[in-house]
């Protein structure tokens, strides 16, 4: 300020005044504006009395500038406006005043600038190039580009900043008062200034809006301009001050709930109007809705609801006394929530399901609150439903659904709630969401499959899955629908299986539950009483996951889980009436897993479970092998190989596999052991027949501890399984397929005989056994280790002529018996050969002869009777004739001539032991003669 | 020219000129014996202040018009010719007690102070005296002037320096009103300094309103003037009690000014003793109010030193006034009020003793 320089004499001052008056009154926009403004500024400094007039004159300067600016905008020109220099000068002086003496000048200047701003913005609101529905930001942009208004805003902000700590209230009041009188054109000022003092302005704007809302009374509509102003201002501030707005909204809400009896009527009615006010605000702006829901929802707990219930009737008055309108607004706001869906749903559910009436002022009120809550919930769901239907499932503009998607982890648990309403609600929400994003559907269905424990929940699951198939069939082509429709559930099953495998390894409960649930569902479907399941959705889903199921069966160790999985496979019945054909790969995999399950059953201690399981296996294998030849081959091979050589062999009486434990050998120690003796390659001087020096005597292999009965049972079951693999498609008179049994024989030969040569049917000359003695012994050894092989031979013998293919095995055993005269094997051999009709009638009784004769005679019998006969008569399947329509082949005894030498030898030997075999002799030879 | 013709002629004139013409006419009307008060009032409200809007709205904004009017008014009062008594009468009718024209009056006075417009200031002085210088209107005017010169444009305080020389009567009344403005709070230091200088340089200032006879139109009854003495005494007495810890630094400087003013006040009062004619210098109620404030302040709140100072000054004021015999009104009440204070300060006790014995 130029205090010292321009002290004017009274006369000069008077002259200045006159000059100013004449200039100001003429009110022309001549070139002398700057000069006049300087006069005015000097008056402002020196003549307090002229203050108002000077400021008023500045108003005209500013408005001239603004009007020029607006005109330039409209004409798209860009020329310098010479008033701008004046304005800059004015700006400097005014700011200097305010800074020098804020208490005195700031109120005056701020009032002046606010009024001027208000006037300018309402006067020029419809000018410029702004569209009709221009928002606050458009205004801001237009006005901030104008020098005059920018200067004014700056002055105002400075004043308010100076005053803020002195008298915040009155400043904001002035601001808002101006805003009220120039609303809505003034909003941009409030918004802009507000961002300098967000906290105060937000609170005050809200309070002001509330007062206005309250004062408007009940008969108002949403189009209330004041409300729009509040929304606009807050919306602008929300950009950078969301937290302040949130706090302010929350405070307002809390304040409205604070019950204090000592209040005047005015405040009371304002408190009552708060909630409708907030609702209306939220309905006008998504930003505010978001701010409101973030915090207020947290406050809204069930214990507050009764408190709110008291006010509800008063709130309705703000909606033309129509509760429906209030509910409708609430529903639409809820739909617009971008977060907090789970809270909204939960609070509605909690309230409507709350049993107690504590807190409500009457039982009726409690009931009606609960009803309203249910109604709102229902309406929300309906609304989403119709929106989804109207815009198609891909429209993702329903905020609430998006929110649900984010908060799935809170919604999904509702699916397993014991309460039906919660479950239904969750099902409906999720199936609506599922229309948009099927993976939600899939994951929640999988969740239910894994965790659901009651039939009720399974029914809900079915509803969740089938709902969508029906709802959205219209929008997709038929072809797609079948894929997608059963695809969802298939995917769900797939996911469930996958997830159940990766839960804590120690606990298979989830997996068991999953398969139990699937069994239940399949049973429902089979019962044909559930309409929705008639499409066979469960079957299809299970089928498409057979791969996973079977591979899971291959992996697991828990027999209980295995039983459950087998239950499903049992129900699924592979090649079904609807001609479902699994691929070869799948069929093989299923076979393998079934065989594995068979052996799991064999290991089972509980006889009932064992038999039940084997029955399932048999049934399944029967169906599968009838359909698929390769499955049959695999199944037989697996069954035989496993039962003979692998781990399960011991359950069939085989010698327990003995694994002599070997320690890690250190080369150094080995070298020490050698001592001074000569080191020889490929030789170990410490290994002996009785053991290895240093490791003690060789341990005998452990005994097989499984009792005889179990072994018998297991063997029977195995035979059943083999037979079911070899069965004809239609069980009936002839259940077993002879070709398949022949395959068993061939497999036995392949597995037992160590050589690929000399495996032919003909028995060579006896002398030739010297050549094959090694492998004969090996075969004999195998038969000794695995007694089960006799059962296998017996099986093939029963179904003639399959045994003929095992000729090599019989030959090997016969050759060893020839050599070591063992009656036991001899009996077994004779028995099997007789059963297989490989020996004609008198020779068939050799098994009865052998135990009763001397050892050397055994050799004779075998050589002269069996070997000689077999040598002469090749055991060919061609010898067996299958009668018409019969499944059993018979050998014609007359077709092959029996060498009398054989009969004679036998007769003489029996005769030599006649004291023991009188009856037999009579039966064999005397009877025969007749 | 009949009155109606004249009004019609005036209505044809534009704003600043019609006001001016109307003022001349009003002056003429005032000078005549039959005053035609109604006509005067009509002319004033229609043509001078434009309160009755008969024609279409003027284009010029109102604050500038106001400034124009103020300029016209000050020009009119300064114009040569016309007796001061008539001018004063016009002034009084322009600004009656109950009106909304006080802002304009404030601006007019403010302008007059700056431009050394003596007639206006004199007229204002009389206006203040007639309405009572402690009345709401006068205090309002004083506030306006203080606001203008001390708060808004502190650089123009110098303009007030010469005021007592320029218009002593106005200054005296203004001083009384200022005393009322700062009745319950401490005045700013600059004001204290100014007042100290005023009284120092013009010792008779405090008594001016008693001495000068206002130039009133015939038949006008001058009101009893109120001197600033009692108000200023109040400042001096109560200021030590309004001890504000925040302003300790400026306190010492301020207290010096108070002491100076107290000294000057005592001088003036004692000077009255000699003149003997002025029994109406100080109102007993005025002093009693000060004493009552002192009585009502609880003991504990105060530092004994400042309390002693306050009591001492009060005692000085009362005893000096009593001895000068320039107190009017209910002196008994004043003394009764001093009674409870007498136990706290010997000077009060002494004053009480002296005066009670004298009265008795």
UniProtKB/TrEMBL annotation, chain A:
Residues 11-215 form the Integrator complex subunit 5 N-terminal domain. One of its GO terms (biological process) is snRNA 3'-end processing. One of its GO terms (cellular component) is integrator complex. Pfam families: INTS5_C, INTS5_N. It comes from the Eukaryota. Residues 226-916 form the Integrator complex subunit 5 C-terminal domain. PANTHER family: INTEGRATOR COMPLEX SUBUNIT 5 (PTHR31697:SF2). This is Integrator complex subunit 5 isoform X1. It comes from Neodiprion lecontei.
UniProtKB/TrEMBL annotation, chain B:
This is Uncharacterized protein C7orf26 homolog. It comes from Neodiprion lecontei (Redheaded pine sawfly). The gene is LOC107219399.
